[in-house]
């Protein structure tokens, strides 16, 4: 083979001759991986953690479509349809509404880097891991970060926010509507109006809540709203949704295949209707709560009015190691639930009901799995 290449190189010129000499003087140090000679195999699992969620057949099919160029007219049409879908689920008429190539965390960074300058006062509600992330990014930008700290499981009242706005006079307030690390649902009614009275913009994280609970970006005075693709929308991770109001005035090679899937996810939600989706999640969560109470489990968020319907956090029962329960449910039932995150780490089990996974059947499956896990997993009675 090498002789043939050497002979051919004479006719093909000096560039090919040099390439052939390089091949002759170097050997491959890394062989083709044996693992890649095997067909890809993915287990079938029910994902009832805080995300990602299972993909509906229509979204899976969209991910198998052929590529088009990111500047082709068909891609522009898809992006326009995605924009209209985001405007619907956000309930906004803002023209500055788009999908971002990256996770919800990427959308948070896009928002903060476009809203804050070094030295700007930035007020952050920290009642879980996502508020802390926002504060960390604000500090890296050089903003003067002021924290409103709540114990995990707590939420912010209008009075608490107004006092902090008057004290710190921030340019921007960050709140998480659905704090998935603790299972808290933050009320939003009146907070936008309050911020604007104090000449402050309102940034809201709706990654874990969008599509499951009501949110009205324009009517609630939210200046920047963002969410993710992999929660209630049941799309692959890697794209996020964001919208800026006129007060909060923000190009790259887009993730084309992921946008096909996102377009179909938004289409499915539009066909179902937001109100029906909200109702579906509320009913499935109420059924989950009844089943969990029957097992004797205690809710981490005590006030039912501020429990996040997409992610339910229950206290780890006394004497159990949360890892044993999570592993048992996965190993014996192929169902994913998770432990805590950030301030709730080691304290809770988290069960997610996201989009198409929010059904009574799935609630029954996971609670039956939990019941068996509590019977079989070791328990320290001391």
From TrEMBL:
PANTHER family: ALANINE--GLYOXYLATE AMINOTRANSFERASE, AMINOTRANSFERASE CLASS V. SUPFAM superfamilies: PLP-dependent transferases. This is Alanine--glyoxylate aminotransferase. Its EC number is 2.6.1.44, 2.6.1.51. InterPro entries: Aminotrans_V_dom, Aminotrans_V_PyrdxlP_BS, PyrdxlP-dep_Trfase, PyrdxlP-dep_Trfase_major, PyrdxlP-dep_Trfase_small, SP_NH2Trfase/AEP_transaminase. The lineage of its organism: Eukaryota, Metazoa, Chordata, Craniata, Vertebrata. GO terms for biological process: glycine biosynthetic process, by transamination of glyoxylate. One of its GO terms (molecular function) is L-serine-pyruvate transaminase activity. It comes from Camelus dromedarius.
